[in-house]
Structures are given as C-alpha cells and as structure tokens.
Amino acid sequence: MFAARLLQARQLRGLSQRALGDRMGLGKDKGSSRINRYEHQVTAIGFDNLGALAQVLDVPVSYLLADDAAMADAILALSQADEGQRDALAALIPALVQEPALLSRLVKLLQLPKREQSKALKALVQED
After folding, report:
1. Chain-wide mean pLDDT for the chain?
2. Which of 74, 97, 114, 123 has the most crowded CB, counting CB atoms within 10 A?
3. If 0-12 CB within 10 Å is exposed, 13-18 middle and 19+ buried, where does residue 115 land?
C-alpha cells in the first residue's frame, strides 16, 4: 500500500521521481533511483526518510502508511480540516460507527444527484 500512496501523492503534487528525490535532499540522480525503488517496492523506506517524504509531499505520514484507500482518503481529509473540524469529526466518526442506520442515511444522501443532495443537506441543517 505504501508504494501506491507514494505514487499517488507524488503525482498529485506533479513531481517527477527526480524532483521528489531532489527536494528530499537526496540529489537528482540518487533521489530518482531511490524514489523509483520505493515505488516498485524494491527498497523499504526508513523512518527518517519517511518523515522527509511526507513533509515534501505535504501529506501526513499516516496517509502513506494507511492500510487501504478509504483509510488513506479519510486521513488526508482529516489533515486538511482545521482543528475545530477535526475535533468534531473525531467525535462524529465513532457515533456513526455505533449508529449504522444514521450512517446509512447519510451515505444515501451523499449518493443523490448534486441538486437534490444540496436541498437535502440544507433541510438537514435547518432541522437544528
């Protein structure tokens, strides 16, 4: 999973393997080779380089180490939220796990066409 996350994050940032390696301080030639080996799972990454890699890619280390795509997406979304939003989401996630019916309703709402979704969300907010 690490290799897939690395490739995805690098491409999202529009960086070549050479540019990423260089920004990590590995130099252009050595860096390109090293990033290629990470992406092809030939070489495991050390903790020091993992932190530097995450910093250059502007993603949390946990994103690169996530077990699956859904977890990685959730980690990335949480990292982009402000502190208040993260606190609210941290309380909301366990509540949704404990209330599968509520989670199911919210998922169905999110599957509506955008126009209907917007109306449904507004109605939900106005209920408060």
Report:
1. 91
2. 74
3. exposed
Rounded to whole angstroms, the Cα distance separating 33 from 6 reads: 14
At residue 8 the predicted structure's pLDDT band, cuts being 50, 70 and 90, is very high
Amino acid in position 90: A
Q: What is the pLDDT of residues 43-91, one digit of tens each?
A: 999 988 899 999 999 999 999 999 999 999 999 999 999 999 999 999 9
- Give the global pTM: 0.78
- Between CA 7 and CA 16 the distance in angstroms is 10
| Cα→Cα distances 8→17, 30, 57, Å | 12, 21, 10
Q: How far apart are CA 21 and CA 33, in angstroms?
A: 8
| CB atoms near residue 38 (< 10 Å) | 24
- Residue 127 clears pLDDT 80, i.e. is over it: no
Domain range annotation of the chain: 2-69, 82-126
